[in-house]
Design brief:
Length: about 700
């Protein structure tokens, strides 16, 4: 069945390319607005190509309804989500995430939980920006993903209420509302959402340990399995107000809150065999991790217009405070009665307190009729306090584990300034700029009474050109330099236990990745776009692992590899095959090539990877719409790991009700349960195979009502 669907997907793609002579956009939904005697029909497209970004219009997608922000990101063009919620663009990791144009300060795990708890009904667009201008933060070697949330701005009382129920292996629900009221110079808005996400994952880890690095003779085999129950509950709300002081000045104040809890309960088994396939160790494992967090952001912003020629000043100040608590319990009991190996129970108390202050000021100065300069400043101050306590049980007493217990404090300051020049000729648009960022880091290991300081100044130029041959034909080229800094968790050398046999460890010697990215592309109207891109990264982050057969444990950490190359071709095609059927096709072919010594391995073999997404939209009647989305990705490499191919086929249908103020949508994602995460690696004397059977096949019924 998988091969049949893949073939159909390819047929849709080829057929859509043959239709590019038609002057159409992707028709997903049509709205008609009556203005006196004039009727304006506006086509809502699914994907929009701009000069510096590809926009995924989430509110026009039926399949995206009733899910979470993380679900939607997995269907964004060129974006792939790992089993841990880590994001990549065009096969490259190191992605910066913004919410409404503001960079998030959360860790990878905290960001994944936030995205899982954000209802897709609140999302308007997802912007994939691969080569941002110097106006944006330089962080994120693969580029920036900007999640644009809905924010009604029409006069009077407007809003939306939504609710949904979904079923995979567990139940999932989310409900909420968005309201705003605008009158004259004043407006107030707010939203609230409640999310419960039940999830069950099935994991299998297999490791082979060899006698030497020739890997001719096996010395031991380790097999681990587990089934997890992962309920997540969150309450997110935001309230704000806008006021027009004068026709030239607007101010805005808001409070944004995220409150949630998450639990990961895993029952598993760990079995070890020797070279003669004789049982050496057999244990039942149990892990219970309870997490709670609350995050509050207080923001004050404004825009002032100096004159009618476009000279403006905008400012934005934010203070974010976040508390995170994790209580862990891990145990393993021998199943083999003949075994004399004793395994101590473990527990951990892992709190953290994050405080971030961010402020920025931006100016736009028109020089002449077709020239302008953008410039501005930004500063951010971050403090993360992480006192972690691990204990193990011995003789019915809990004893502090000094190898893991640690009080870690991370302080970071980043100050930036930029200037960006725009010049529009008759057919040529030029945008060039430079950004400088000064970074100061202070790491304090209070347990060991060790302190590490570092500071550096980096320059980040950017350039983009767009030439319009005619109204329908255009080419663009762009270049940018970017940085990916290690997080505080990447730098913390103490242990973080996933279970009794697997833990991760930070590397305080990690240095930032620096990327040079360039691309050139061609566009025919909004129907066909093709881009060739090339990225070179120095001091690449790469995950490595070491297996210790003495205690049957595996430790993972990060190191810097000399350099890597990421290059490929990206094609987007939009076509209307019939008035009732339109097709969006996204094709990306890329290769990652790593250079440098990785745990006694001189290189990692590159893999040519194909990623293809075909979105079919059907207009059945004026009130009935449908979608069918197929995505396929061939084998790819993620550092030392090789990821198997995966396939996703999802469908959805919607019906407008209640005088078109309401809509009912039904969708089923990953119908054939083929979108899984399988990775394997062979380095040194160890081979490892990890198989995550994800909870991706979800049926969702959603209802939305517009006030």
């Amino acid at each position: 069945m998988k091969n049949i669907i893949t073939s159909l997907m390819l047929v849709f793609s080829v057929y859509s390319y043959s239709q590019t002579e038609k002057e159409t956009d992707s028709v997903v939904e049509t709205t008609i607005n009556a203005l006196e005697e004039i009727v304006i029909t506006k086509k809502k497209v699914l994907y929009t190509q701009k000069s510096d970004r590809l926009v995924f219009n989430v509110e026009n997608s039926i399949i995206s309804e009733g899910g979470t922000a993380l679900d939607v990101l997995s269907r964004a063009p060129g974006v792939v989500v790992s089993q841990d919620g880590d994001l990549s663009i065009r096969g490259q990791q190191g992605v910066a995430v913004m919410i409404n144009g503001k960079l998030t300060q959360l860790s990878q795990k905290e960001l994944a939980n936030y995205l899982k708890s954000t209802a897709s009904s609140n999302i308007k667009q997802i912007e994939v920006i691969t080569n941002p201008s110097s106006k944006y933060d330089a962080t994120g070697k693969a580029g920036i993903i900007n999640i644009v949330l809905k924010k009604p701005n029409s006069s009077g009382l407007k809003g939306t209420a939504f609710t949904s129920y979904a079923r995979g292996r567990k139940n999932r629900t989310n409900s909420g509302f968005n309201l705003n009221y605008n009158k004259d110079k004043w407006g107030v808005y707010g939203n609230y959402s409640y999310t419960f996400r039940g999830e069950e994952e099935r994991k299998k880890f297999n490791q082979l340990q060899y006698t030497d690095e020739t890997r001719q003779t096996v010395s031991s085999k380790n097999h681990q399995t587990s089934v997890t129950d992962e309920p997540l509950t969150s309450n997110n709300f935001k309230i704000g107000t806008q006021y027009e002081i004068s026709p030239k000045t607007n101010l805005e104040v808001y409070v944004d809150a995220k409150i949630g809890r998450y639990q990961n309960i895993a029952d598993g088994r760990n079995t070890l065999f020797n070279a003669m396939n004789q049982l050496q160790f057999d244990a039942a494992t149990y892990n219970d991790s309870k997490e709670k967090w609350n995050d509050y952001t207080y923001a004050f912003s404004g825009v002032h217009k100096f004159d009618t020629e476009g000279k403006t000043m905008s400012f934005d100040f934010e203070y974010e405070t976040s508390k995170f608590r994790s209580n862990q319990f891990q145990s393993a009991q021998n199943i083999d009665p003949a075994s004399m190996v004793e395994i101590d129970d473990r527990r951990g108390f892992i709190p953290s307190q994050l405080r971030v202050f961010t402020g920025k000021v931006d100016f736009v100065n028109p020089l002449k009729e077709k020239q302008s300069i953008e410039w501005g400043f930004k500063g951010s101050i971050k403090n993360n306090d992480n006192p972690s306590i691990y204990e193990y049980s011995q003789n019915k007493e809990w004893i502090t584990d000094l190898k893991s217990t640690n009080h870690f404090e991370y302080k970071e300051q980043i100050y930036a300034a930029y200037v960006n020049y725009k010049y529009q000729l008759e057919k040529l648009n030029i945008q060039g700029g430079i950004r400088t960022e000064y970074t100061a880091i202070n790491i304090l290991q209070k347990t060991m009474n060790e302190e590490h300081k570092d500071d550096y100044l980096k320059w980040f130029p950017s350039l983009s050109l767009k030439y319009e041959f005619t109204e329908n034909h255009a080419m663009h080229a762009s270049y940018s330099k970017r940085i990916n800094r290690p997080s505080q968790f990447d730098l913390n050398p103490f242990r973080f236990y996933d279970d009794s046999f697997n833990y991760s460890q930070g590397n305080p010697n990690l240095i930032p990745e620096i990327t040079h990215a360039a691309e050139i592309g061609y566009a025919w109207k909004s129907a066909f776009m093709a881009t060739v891109y090339f990225n070179k990264t120095k001091d690449v982050f790469t995950e490595v692992y070491v297996y210790n057969p003495a205690d049957n444990t595996t430790v993972t950490s990060q190191i810097n590899v000399d350099k890597s190359y990421n290059y490929g071709v990206n094609i987007t095609n939009t076509a209307e095959i019939y008035k009732w059927w339109s097709v969006n096709t996204l094709l990306n072919v890329f290769e990652n090539k790593f250079m440098g010594k990785v745990v006694n391995t001189e290189k990692i073999d590159p893999i040519v990877t194909l990623n293809m997404n075909v979105q079919n939209s059907f207009t059945i009647t004026e009130t009935w719409k449908a979608e069918a989305n197929a995505q396929y990705q061939s084998k790819s490499n993620l550092g030392i790991y090789e990821r198997d191919s995966f396939f996703d086929f999802s469908i959805g249908i919607s019906k407008q009700v209640l005088a078109n103020k309401g809509s009912i949508k039904l969708n089923v994602t990953d119908i054939f349960n083929t979108n899984n995460f399988y990775i394997n690696s062979v380095i040194r004397q160890t081979s490892i195979d990890k198989r995550y059977d994800l909870d991706n096949r979800i049926a969702t019924l959603a209802f939305t009502y517009r006030i």
